[in-house]
Amino acid sequence: MSFTRTGWRVLVVSLLAGLAVLWPVGTASAHDSLLATSPKKGAVVTTAPSTITLTFSDDVAKIAPTVILRGPDGKVTTDEPDVRANKVRTRVSDDLTDGRYTVAWRVVSSDGHPVEGTFRFTVDAGEESSPTATPTPTTSTPTATRGEPSTTPASRGNDSTGSAIPIAVGLALLVVLVVVAVVAWRRRRT
Asked: Which band of pLDDT confidence, cut at 50, 70 and 90, is reported for residue 70?
């Protein structure tokens, strides 16, 4: 059983079409990631910060950025965030007392998907500063309620669900194209 020239052409074109469908999937599902924070995640600072700065891997959209600072007493103490390119800054509106603080943030990634996360730092006027590594952000889907982000956002890791659908569609299309090529080849033989 051998393919004719037309059969081989149809098969090659089908395979190339399937690859063309699958090719852009890898880059389309990437979200911006949080590269650095000020103060740093887990840091113990001797001077209370007057601003909180988040630095992302790409420019973020100026669509409803949110940065919430919760103190040991649960009080929210930040102003409206300012977005400039890949940096989001917010001024701390109150003097911070000693204690552990949680920063919850949510921005819209350059690909249009919301990205959110949390990190903590401690203000202690009696200790040396000891910053640690920058936080690993989490991604999430938009919620039905408006307002503050959760201080414990749901994590979806690398957002593999979003990229699985285009891959499945591409593979299904590839199978259909191969079946069409085989049927066309058999019809030409008879």
From this structure: very high
- Amino acid identity of residue 185, one-letter, is W
Note the pTM of the prediction, 2 decimals.
0.54
Secondary structure (DSSP) of 133-177: PPP--EE-PPPSS-SSPPSSPPP-TTTHHHHHHHHHHHHHHHHHH
- Percentages of the chain per state (helix, strand, coil), in multiples of 5: 25, 30, 45
* Residue 109: strand, helix, or coil: coil
Closest Cα partner for 55 from 43, 45, 41?
Answer: 41
Express each pLDDT in 82-109 by its tens digit.
999 999 999 998 888 899 999 999 999 8
Question: What phi and psi values does residue 121 have, to the nearest 5 degrees?
Answer: -150, 165
C-alpha 125/C-alpha 123 separation (Å) is 6
β-strand pairing of 99-108 with 87-91: unpaired
Bridge partners (DSSP) listed for residue 101: 121
CA angle 185, 166, 140 (to 5 degrees): 170
| Three-state secondary structure call for residue 91 | strand
Nearest to 83 by CA among 96, 64, 103, 99: 64
CB-side neighbour CA atoms (13 Å) of 154: 7
CB 14 within 8 Å of CB 174 = yes
DSSP conformational letter for 85: T
